[in-house]
Amino acid sequence: MQDAVEGSRLRGAQEKGREVTPAKIDLKTVAIASMAILAWLFCAFSTANIARANGQNYNLWLLVGLLTGPLGLMFAYLFFRLTGERTRRTRYGADHRYDVPDMISCPNCGQSVPRSYDSCQFCRFPLHGRR
Fold it and tell me: What pTM was computed for the model?
């Protein structure tokens, strides 16, 4: 049936004196479309990863990223930058103190070690003058 419809279209176009050529898709068009799709997917997965890093539902934010692309990525970045769990913990923490540990430098190896440690986690050198 479809062949009959296609055949009648071709005959009608040929009777009117027009040449019928099938649509051509060149390599440049395919490459641009492929790059656009990859960029869109990158934005979607990046949106979902930002959400997961801030304790939110990965799949929901993946859907948001797939539907909105670059706009969703910008929204997620700004939204979680201002309201995200990491920012909230760093800014406010317990008793409105920073939740990030206070770091000191090991006198032996120079690595950064939390102040609450008794010895360096890298070289086992005693910190705070305790032996």
Answer: 0.50
